[in-house]
Amino acid sequence: CSGIHRSFSCQIKSIELDFWDDKQVEIMKSNGNASAKAIYEKAVPPYYYQPCQSDCNVLVDQWIRAKYERMEFTGETKYPPPPYTTGFYEGILWKKGKENTQFLKRKFVLSERGFTLTYYNREDESKGPKAVIFIKDLNATFQTEKIGHPHGLQITYQTEHNTRNLFVYHENPEDIVTWYNVIRAARYSYLKTAYPTGSDKELVPKITRNYLKEGYMEKTGPNQKEQFKKRWFVLDSQTRKLYYFKDQLDAEELGVIFIGTESNSYSVAAFTPKSTRGNKWKHGIMVDTPARQFVLMCEQEKEQREWIDYLKINTLFHFYPKPFWSSCKNWLKLHISMLK
């Protein structure tokens, strides 16, 4: 954070390396974090994402700039108002093609009134939208490393038959974070409509979510004799689903594994397969479901342990309290330590 603050026109001092006289210490005591928050975070909307330490740089950077540079949360009336407060937003994003790796400019329109996110292949809307996405089944999460851009955002939604991924970015960091919070504002409005008695404490963690774990594993077929193939896996803790794709930037999944509870005959354990046809990796996992067994292989033992720990959380717990859905994994780490 200090690096971001140093880019502002304000004085930054190190607690350990710089000299502090008594007067400066008293000023800091009387104007500490609590006093600053009372001013700069007086009116943060409940849906506005407040990043934690593990979040990507663009979220942290824009959170700090929104507070201290643009002063968006002081409670004073802003003109023009911040886009995430208006219920409508449109603009151009670079979007990856469904069948190729090329990113092209596409127009996106978000309507909170209709609870939809619409995008067009051309700026001319007269030819109709390419897709109309309902906010009900939409998730957005920053995927900077996967997309290969510091402002990369993954938008995921449900179609009639599968899950669809959109990979987008904007060159301007403020614009991409605005899009993220506009989506969160619409999701919040939808949840308040769908669950009118729900409190912010219950609903805010469900607005958007980061996926619990992603990465490559090898997978064989239902007979456990088929050739192992490398697949990209994504564990969505909220839906209790383990998705697998051919590659990490695929638009649609190849398949999905539902992870139920042990009481319903689901289990996860380390495993050494009998057949290793086409297999290059040695650290196995068995995911046992009532329908079939899934054999997966990890490249490293560390990856195997992490996947088992995260998958076991789903098998051991019937429901998730609020902290589970937050991007910070403190609740999860606590329960993994309990497993061990």
TrEMBL record:
Q: Which Gene3D superfamilies match?
A: Arf GTPase activating protein, Pleckstrin-homology domain (PH domain)/Phosphotyrosine-binding domain (PTB)
Q: What is this protein called?
A: ArfGAP with dual PH domains 2
Q: Which InterPro entries match?
A: Arf-GAP_dual-PH_domain, ARFGAP/RecO, ArfGAP_dom, ArfGAP_dom_sf, PH-like_dom_sf, PH1_ADAP, PH_domain
Keywords linked to the UniProt accession? Cytoplasm, GTPase activation, Metal-binding, Repeat, Zinc, Zinc-finger
Q: Which PROSITE patterns match?
A: ARFGAP, PH_DOMAIN
Q: Name one GO cellular component term.
A: cytoplasm
Key word Cytoplasm present in the record?
yes
> Where in the numbering of this chain does the PH domain appear?
86-188, 210-316
Which SMART domains does its entry note? ArfGap, PH
Q: Which GO terms describe its biological process?
A: heart development
The subcellular location is: Cytoplasm
Checking Pfam families in the record gives: ArfGap (PF01412), PH (PF00169)
Boundaries of every Arf-GAP domain copy: 1-81
Report TM segments.
none
> Which top-level group of life is the source organism from?
Eukaryota
The GO terms this record gives for MF are: GTPase activator activity; phosphatidylinositol bisphosphate binding; phosphatidylinositol-3,4,5-trisphosphate binding; zinc ion binding
